[in-house]
């Protein structure tokens, strides 16, 4: 689970370097918020999986295990960024002609790196903490409320932090664009959680059944 979680984060950060515009044939707005066409990045289909996996880890193994997975993912992202930086700045061989393309795809600006790391770290911790806190009250009941509620808190914090830091770098220069990016991004990520809820339920049920260390008693939450 931790390996998939970490791989998802690393792959998402690479895919996010491409800007994507979907449903360009339509124009739908709700007040100041532009719904369609949907402007996002190339990781839009993958990054929500990190929060789904975070939910599974928190639900089955508790906050302490989820926190360790988050720390592992954070360290892996730092290592990835460091390796990219070293590779970009190594002297190119005479036959290598793709230096500019390499820098475009992997050479994210320090501000984008900071935004991504800060958003991920805070969002994932809040996502895990919220799920475990709700579980302390609901026990084994209302799993849907834990999954959706924790995603709402985590994704909102992640999106707000990332956009607040990286707005100027990714071309957001007005309050309308800022609000649009936050709302649409947040709604999309939350919708992903809702759509895959049946799959998340099955994975959690399977792990609870097969994991020898799982107990139906409330797991220690933030006190750890």
Helices and strands in order:
Elements: H1 2-15, E1 19-22, E2 28-30, E3 33-36, E4 38-41, H2 47-89, H3 99-106, H4 110-138, H5 143-166, H6 175-195, H7 197-210
Descriptive overview:
By secondary structure, the chain is mainly α. Residues 217-221 have low confidence and may be disordered. The chain has helices spanning 2-15, 47-89, 99-106, 110-138, 143-166, 175-195, 197-210; strands at 19-22, 28-30, 33-36, 38-41. It contains 7 helices and 4 strands. The chain is 68% helix and 7% strand. The strands form 2 sheets. The chain has a two-stranded antiparallel ribbon. The longest helix is centred in the first third of the chain and has 43 residues, at 47-89. The two termini are 21 Å apart. A hairpin with a 2-residue loop joins strand 2 and strand 3. Helix 2 (47-89) crosses helix 6 (175-195).
């Amino acid at each position: 689970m931790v390996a998939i979680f970490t791989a998802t984060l690393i792959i998402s950060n690479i895919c996010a370097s491409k800007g994507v515009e979907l449903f360009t044939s339509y124009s739908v707005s709700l007040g100041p918020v532009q719904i369609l066409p949907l402007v996002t990045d190339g990781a839009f289909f993958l990054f929500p999986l990190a929060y789904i996996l975070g939910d599974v880890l928190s639900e089955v193994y508790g906050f302490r295990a989820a926190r360790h997975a988050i720390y592992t993912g954070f360290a892996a992202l730092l290592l990835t960024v460091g390796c990219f930086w070293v590779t970009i700045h190594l002297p190119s061989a005479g036959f290598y002609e793709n230096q500019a393309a390499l820098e475009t795809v992997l050479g994210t600006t320090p501000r984008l790196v900071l935004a991504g790391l800060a958003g991920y770290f805070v969002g994932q911790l809040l996502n895990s903490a919220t799920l475990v806190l709700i579980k302390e009250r609901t026990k084994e009941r209302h799993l849907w409320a834990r999954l959706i509620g924790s995603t709402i808190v985590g994704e909102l914090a992640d999106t707000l932090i990332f956009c607040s830091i990286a707005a100027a770098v990714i071309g957001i220069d007005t309050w309308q664009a800022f609000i649009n990016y936050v709302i649409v991004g947040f709604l999309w990520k939350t919708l992903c959680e809702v759509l895959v809820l049946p799959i998340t339920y099955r994975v959690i049920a399977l792990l609870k059944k097969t994991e020898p260390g799982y107990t139906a008693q409330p797991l220690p939450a933030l006190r750890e």
